[in-house]
C-alpha cells in the first residue's frame, strides 16, 4: 500500500469497525498476491471502501471520470488506485483499465450489477463483467456485503449506524466458459459473456448472512 492508500485504509477500517461493527468473513479466500477479480453486489456508496478495508492487500477500483475533474480529487482518487472510466464502466476504456491492472498483478473490484440497487435486492449482472472474466485468466472471487443498503442506501441522505458484514466466497468456476469462448461463434460468445456474469452473480447470491445480523437484502426472483 502506498501512503495515501494506507492512511485511507486505516481511517475507513476504523470507522467501519467502530461505528458500524464491521465483520469480515473468509478474507483468506482472496489470494495475497497476483491478479484477481472481486465481484460484489452493490447496495451503497459504502461498498468500495468497505470491501477495501476488509482486506490486507490494496484493491483497484473503477470510478466515473466526472469525479476526476478537480485537481485535488483527481490526485486523491488516483492515489488510492481508482481508475477513471465512463459512467457505465463497461466500455472500451473500462475494459482496458481492468486488463492493464490485472496484467500488473493487481486485485480489482467489480460490481456485476453495474449500479447500486434501488430496492435492496440483488439484480441481474451485466454482460460486460462476463467479458472481463472470460478474457482474463485470473481467479474470480464472489463477495457479498450485508447491511450497507440499510446503512446508506439510495433512500438515505446521511449514513445510519447499522451492522455491516463482508463475506468472501470460494472462486467461481468459469473454466468451461473460458474454454468454450475460445472456439465458439460470435453470436454464441455474447451469450457466454452473459452466462459468466450470471454464474458470478449467482455465486454472490449464495453467500448467506451470518446468524446474528438481520435485515439483509434478499435475492430478487
Question: Can you tag this structure with a few keywords?
Answer:
8 helices; disordered C terminus; 7-stranded mixed sheet; alpha/beta; 221 residues; Glycerol-3-phosphate (1)-acyltransferase
Overview of the molecule:
The chain is 39% helix and 15% strand. With 221 residues, the protein is of the alpha/beta class. It has a single domain (3-205), classed as Glycerol-3-phosphate (1)-acyltransferase. A seven-stranded mixed beta sheet has the order 1-7-6-2-5-3-4, sandwiched between helices. Helix 1 (3-19) crosses helix 2 (47-53) and helix 7 packs antiparallel against helix 8. 40% of the residues are buried. The model is unreliable at 213-221 (pLDDT under 50).
In short, what is this structure?
39% of the residues lie in helices and 15% in strands.
Blueprint (SSEs and pairs):
Elements: H1 3-19, E1 23-25, E2 36-40, H2 47-53, E3 59-64, H3 71-79, E4 82-85, H4 92-103, E5 107-110, H5 127-135, E6 139-146, H6 148-152, E7 165-168, H7 175-181, H8 186-205
Parallel strand pairs: 1-7, 2-5, 2-6, 3-4, 3-5
Antiparallel strand pairs: 6-7
What is the CATH H-level superfamily?
Glycerol-3-phosphate (1)-acyltransferase
Give the total of domains: 1
- Kindly report the CATH topology: Glycerol-3-phosphate (1)-acyltransferase
What's the CATH class, please? Alpha Beta
Give the overall shape: globular
Which H/E pattern describes the elements? HEEHEHEHEHEHEHH
**Structural class computed from helices and strand pairing:** alpha/beta
> How many distinct helices?
8
Measured on Cα atoms, how large is the radius of gyration?
17 Å
Unreliable spans: 213-221
- Share in helix: 25-40%
Strand content: 15-25%
Amino acid at each position: 500500500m502506498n501512503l495515501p492508500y494506507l492512511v485511507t485504509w486505516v481511517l475507513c477500517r476504523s470507522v467501519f469497525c467502530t461505528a458500524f461493527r464491521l465483520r469480515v468473513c473468509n478474507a483468506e479466500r482472496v489470494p495475497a498476491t497476483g491478479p484477481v477479480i472481486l465481484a460484489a453486489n452493490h447496495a451503497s456508496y459504502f461498498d468500495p471502501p468497505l470491501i477495501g478495508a476488509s482486506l490486507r492487500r490494496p484493491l483497484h477500483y473503477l470510478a466515473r471520470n466526472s469525479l476526476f475533474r478537480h485537481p485535488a480529487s483527481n490526485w486523491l482518487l488516483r492515489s488510492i488506485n481508482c481508475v477513471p472510466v465512463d459512467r457505465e464502466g463497461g466500455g472500451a476504456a473500462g475494459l482496458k483499465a481492468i486488463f492493464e491492472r490485472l496484467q500488473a498483478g493487481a486485485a480489482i473490484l467489480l460490481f456485476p450489477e453495474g449500479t447500486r440497487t434501488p430496492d435492496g435486492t440483488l439484480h441481474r449482472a451485466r454482460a460486460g463483467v462476463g467479458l472481463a472474466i472470460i478474457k482474463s485468466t485470473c481467479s474470480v472471487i464472489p463477495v457479498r456485503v450485508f447491511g450497507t443498503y440499510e446503512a446508506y442506501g439510495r433512500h438515505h441522505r446521511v449514513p445510519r449506524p447499522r451492522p455491516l458484514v463482508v463475506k468472501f466466497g470460494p472462486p467461481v468456476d468459469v473454466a468451461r466458459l473460458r474454454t468454450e469462448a475460445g472456439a465458439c461463434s460470435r453470436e454464441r460468445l455474447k451469450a457466454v459473456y452473459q452466462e459468466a456474469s450470471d454464474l458470478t452473480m449467482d455465486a454472490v447470491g449464495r453467500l448467506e448472512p451470518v446468524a446474528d445480523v438481520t435485515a439483509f437484502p434478499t435475492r430478487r426472483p
